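Convert to structure. Protein one:
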Amino acid sequence: MRLMLIAMGGSNHTVKWATALRNRGHDIMLATFYPPNEIEGIDIRYLACRNRLSMLFKVRQVRELAKRFQPDIVHAHYASSCGFVAARVGVRPLVLSVWGDDIIEFPRRSLIHRWIVRKAILGADYVTATSRMLGSETEQLVAGRRKARVIPFGVDLERFRFVERPSRPTFHIGTVRWLTKKYGLEYLIRAFAKLAAKPFSLKLTIIGWGPLRPKLEALTASLGVADRITFTGRLPNEEVARYFEQFDLFVMPSVSRGETFGVAAVEAMATGLPVVASDIGGLPEVVADGVTGRLVPPADVDRLASTLEQYILSESMRREDGRRGRERVERHFDWNHNVQMMIDLYDEILAHMR
């Protein structure tokens, strides 16, 4: 099958999709407006743009690429940029995968932003979303004129292996987040500081980077816990998996509905970590409350601290929730199965065209 992807070439999500589809024997061209990562075996066409508006001037070039490549299917990722351009290109059939912010946040900026996303959705023949919540929001934007098929963005179960964690003298809490306001890291740090005032030996590792790092580091210093909290910066996926083996508990303290899935939570669960997450967005579809972890109200420092303390005090609770988390990932979020779900959609589309 010849597949033309129109997507953000620098995104790990794009790399993961393109690589998986190539490994299944498909011929892939990737058209991107963003500086791309190198992906072995993929024909990458970088159409440099200064900003989102300048993408509109690349429609003709993308159309010419499609004319030469002759794809069986065009698949655009992210409605508010690549999806809108793909809809203007007009090559059929067109699949659009929505990611989160493009549906939850972008359309709320203005009527023009909303119009852009609606055009992208209605310009696609098929739409996919990573969660039921995101799919529902997408359908509502176009008054049900398109239906979204849910295809989760799962994890590699070989890379993120189940780990039996021994009792350790220091309890290690971890998270993987962009350091921006929507991910609620301030509340995790404040909850951690409450627990650090008790007779527990604790440490917190925050993996990721972003504009809030200086403010968050200043907050740790003001709360007197800077010596117990490590900011690693951005790490390769392989190194993140090694960090998960060192953690005893994983936390997703998001405060935005734009958290429509929670890949990091799925990765953590795959290794047998219980997850404490905010009850917001698509996180309740990933973390089964009272089964694989706990859901807490967003931005509630006291509830977050008390829930973390329950796990600190109960090794059996950590083990049971961690084991059930791995089982849940194997059932619903196995990356190989999720890739096959997408290929099944492609096959359905081509069958309907015959």
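Protein two, convert as well:
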Amino acid sequence: MVAAVALAQSGGDAGDRAGASDPSGATATTTTGPGTIMAAPLPAPRAALPRTDAGLAAALTDTTRSLRVAIAAWTAAGGARTAEPPRAVTLLALHQQRLYRRLADDPARADRVVARLGLGLRGEARDVVLARRALGRIPRSGGAPAVRTAVAAPAEELRSAYARGERRFGVPGDVLAAVNFVESAFGRVRSASEAGARGPMQFLPATWRQYGLGGDIDDAGDAILGAANYLRAGGAPRDERRALFAYNHSTDYVSAILRFARRMRADERTFYAFYAWQVYVRSPGGRGARRVTGPR
């Protein structure tokens, strides 16, 4: 199995250059201290990113804080059970994603920016940047395939599937979520990989016949359960690294999955943030990347 192009881990954001705040005039509610609430304009999909270390650190801090508040409101209202993220979550998550992409492309700057972050964000930022960088080192076989995307299954439906996989096979739900995230952006990428892997968990058809439990390779719940079965056969949960290496023969892949899983285990809001991230694909020739989902 190979990591899908869903996260397009290397290269800049072609076409994501200009803009400021969201032209709709919508705002995000942010808490700035005990008893203090303020509204800030939502970032536009192509809002310019800060150029200085201090500016990037402040933007990542403010965006993540606002995103967590928006996620809490979305999930408390029950929206994650049935629908795609609301506009506030979508725009804030995209801005956060673009900031992380910028940092992952510049290791020296990333180290300086991460060092400026508060303790509540520093660990997450370090893991996300290092995970993206690790995925960018995985060799690709052949040219990038044409990418077909669709709407992901509702976030709570996916969380229930991870929980079923954990109950039945003992594989941690956050590890299943991280594989789902990296392989297909939680099922948004519907096209086969360069190697012919398919579905939300990117199974090769022959492997699916052995571990898919008779389910549908393209169904999110079936694919997650099949992945849990496969990882259990590979050594999880006792030896997650060995099991993940069997899933994708790359130590960089293993490192990335475990870093993403650790962040989602530490704070469930991080799962919802990753869920709201968009799909980028490599541009022709491997120079940069372009976003193919989300607001324009």
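Strands lie at 13-14, 27-33, 36-41, 280-282, 289-291. Confidence is low (pLDDT under 50) at residues 1-6, 8-12, 32-38.
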